[in-house]
């Protein structure tokens, strides 16, 4: 087992709860629209988790082998890398091959779905592939890393999972994808604050570096507030059921600490409780939205 531990480390297991909640949200939205397949949901979850592992591994590999960022970060449970590669537990070459293997599995799942539902999935696959391959070494240096994360690990998985159920994208899936985008955008953004100097040395140009801590904190606050607003608007417009308002409750409870920091003194380090609340907010909102949609279909 000790030989597997480094691979589990660079896979960042706790973060793999995110794709599971996104699959649940997309599949529940499709079920609410009248279409659901256990087979497609299960295979889709395997593919999405595989791709998420690939992104995590490629990021760890690049931050060690290319830029050396992970040699200078101050690690928290939510940022700064896992420390697996700097510790020498496995080689960077082994890590790269491991990531490629997961990416190939994700690609195989995508190809299988194309044979089942046609080419409608191809645009999502192309955008996803660009996000996976170019996220760390290109997109984060172009200043669009947060947008790429919001799409590739937020909105598109919800839309894609619904698509493979129905062959099209129903309105409830689009409605569920919008808050997913904002939350994953914020998941990355808040975790960037502790690593500003290391990221700057490594050539990244994320929002905290481009606009400074106070402005980036306000961007975080705006995206956080837009998340429950998007759910409420979708309910008013009839795209989501009334019960979906339950998915706004995590925002009311868990955003208190992050927003206190964002509107208070963002020049100070982000408190660890605020970073933890940010993660739980993301996972619980997706989950409650999925539960609300499933309950409404019973």
Mean pLDDT: 92
Major sheet description: none
- The low-confidence runs, each spanning 5 or more residues with pLDDT under 50, are none
> Which descriptor suits the 3D outline?
globular
The helix-strand sequence is HHHHHHHHHHHHH
Q: Approximately how much helix is present in the residues?
A: over 70%
What is the count of helical runs? 13
Structural class: mainly alpha
CATH class: Mainly Alpha
Q: Can you tell me the CATH architecture?
A: Orthogonal Bundle
List how many beta strands DSSP finds.
Answer: 0
Query: Measured on Cα atoms, how large is the radius of gyration?
Result: 19 Å
Within the CATH hierarchy, at the fold level, what is the topology? Farnesyl Diphosphate Synthase
State the end-to-end distance: 42 Å
> What is the number of domains?
1
Content of β-strand: under 5%
Quick tags:
single chain, 298 residues, mainly alpha, Farnesyl Diphosphate Synthase, 13 helices, globular
Walk me through what this model shows.
The protein has 298 residues and is mainly alpha-helical. It has one domain: Farnesyl Diphosphate Synthase, CATH 1.10.600. Helix content is 72%, strand content 0%. It starts with a helix and ends with a helix.
Briefly characterize the structure.
It contains 13 helices and no strands.
